[in-house]
Specification:
The protein is α/β, with parallel strands linked by helices. It is built from 6 helices and 7 strands, in the order βαβαββαββαβαα.
């Protein structure tokens, strides 16, 4: 089998991919995550996932490369990674009692093997009404400054929601493993 490479520096994506039990390497894609005016959240996630996979595939033409990106939106507003406690509190305050959509794109690129596949998983997250003290406690305890939306659903962030609707619960964390496992099987990897 061709070597498998994850085009990502995300520790969350590396941890998820490890679950599949397939040896892989991770390499930074070095792709700027620029915003294009008028581009939908879904299109942006897919464009960036493809760009990441293609950038690494050019460096490793004999490998199968996984690219992924997630773009979250509440209405027309794109939610970024907050970066610090104040921005995280503000973002969670704005999400209180609202719904956000998380568009997680995943692509496979294998130039030598002729592998090209792409998928976008959309997860709906409905936040419960959150008080300022709850948000403060959550942010101080979890410090999810590097997570789109300002929470970690795989940890204490789960307490912030009314409910989640998803075809693949791993997509919200950053890598849709149900789709990816099928795509890798299609490329010849043996899973399980």
């Amino acid at each position: 089998m061709p070597p498998l490479i994850l085009a990502s520096t995300s520790p969350y994506r590396r941890e998820l991919l490890t679950r599949l039990g397939v040896p892989f390497e991770a390499h930074p894609p070095g792709v700027p995550e620029e915003v294009i005016a008028g581009e939908s959240a879904t299109d942006r996630a897919l464009r960036l996932a493809q760009a990441k996979a293609q950038a690494v595939a050019r460096r490793f033409p004999d490998a199968i490369v996984i690219g992924s990106d997630q773009v979250a939106a509440a209405g027309e507003r794109v939610l970024g990674k907050p970066g610090d406690a104040a921005a995280c509190r503000a973002q969670l305050t704005s999400l209180s009692g609202r719904t956000a959509l998380f568009h997680t794109a995943c692509t496979l690129a294998g130039t030598g093997a002729g592998v090209h596949a792409a998928h976008v998983d959309t997860t709906t997250v409905v936040f419960r009404s959150l008080g300022a003290e709850e948000i403060e406690r959550y942010v101080a305890r979890e410090q999810p400054f590097d997570c789109a939306g300002g929470f970690k659903a795989e940890a204490l962030g789960i307490t912030l929601f009314e409910y989640i609707e998803s075809r693949d619960p791993t997509a919200l964390i950053g890598l849709p493993l149900i789709w990816l496992a099928g795509a890798l099987r299609g490329a010849g990897y043996r899973l399980p």
